[in-house]
Structures are given as C-alpha cells and as structure tokens.
From TrEMBL:
Residues 1-77 are annotated as: Disordered. InterPro entries: DUF7500. Residues 26-37 have a biased composition (Basic and acidic residues). It comes from the Archaea. It comes from Halosimplex aquaticum. This is Flagella cluster protein. Pfam families: DUF7500.
Amino acid sequence: MAKGDNDPSDAEDGPILSPDELDITQDEHVAEIDDGRYVVSPGGPIDDVPTVDDGTDEPSGPPVEQATDGAADPPELTESDVHAFLETQFEDTGSRYGFDITATFDGSIQQRQMVSNDVVTIFESLVLWYAQQIDGKTPVEEVLGILLMEANVPVRYPPASLRRLLESTELSPDDSIADLIAAVGDEDGFRI
C-alpha cells in the first residue's frame, strides 16, 4: 500500500494538534447547551442555541444580595469560592483526571482547562499547552526537551525507548558510542 492510502503509520508522521486546535468550544459550528453538553451543526454556524430546562427554578449562580436602594450588589468572590466552584465542576464531569490553570507568561494571562479519563492525554495536553505559551517560535518538542534537560528532576526513560532510538539508526553492536552520537546528534536533536 502506498503512503497516504489510509496507511495507519501516516498518523505518526502528521502534524501534532495543539490543545487549542482540539478545543471545540470556540468553533462557530458548536454551541454549549448545558454543562458539558454541546450542539454541533453539520452546516452553517449556530445562531440560536436551544436552552435546556432541568426542571428546577433555582438560579445557577451564587445568590446576589439586594442593596438598600434595590440595585443588585455583585457578589464578592474569594479564592476559596473559586476553589470550591472548580472542585464541584470537576466532580460533576465524572472524569478521572483534570486541570484548570491560570498562568502568566511574560505578563500575558493564559487559561486552560481539560478533563479526561486518560492520564496520558491529560498530561500531554498540559505540557503541550505550557510549552506553547513559553515560546511560540521554537518547536514544542524542542521546548519540552530543553525544559526536561534543564530541570533539576532526573527523568528515567523506559529501556524500550532507548531500544527504539537505537533501532532508528543503522548502527550495529560493533559500533562505538561516538558512532551513536554522530548518528543521532544532528542539530534537530533526537526523539525518544
């Protein structure tokens, strides 16, 4: 079968999607109708979103106190209120893993939230997002390599990853370590 004819190995050679590219909430063809429930339009953009009546007449937000002049005072949110809200939100998703991050990168505030039942997916989303925020010009895999190399935390790779690296070269057991460094040490680095 020729490459490109639905060969499963093509997926490995394709571009890596960023977490923002996987976020459907910003698409004009998608509208959230309830917490975690979406309507996806197969045609044009969605203009009117149907509302969902859950049968309760209770307000969805925190209670608003009335001022003496009849105007509504905005509620004062505390850090513990935000943490309690996020805790409830994560409990309601039913997912095993999740994160909600607000971070600053050179004065720019960025936020990211994700939930998943797959521990690798959630970790990958977090580190890819973080690396993209640090430097938009350097390839993400290079940023991650630099961060791991410069961190004071030693990383232990499974032996299978070293085996895959060695198999990706044309070296034999008779070759030297210098031959290995020459084989994988081009300026683009190597992947484990």
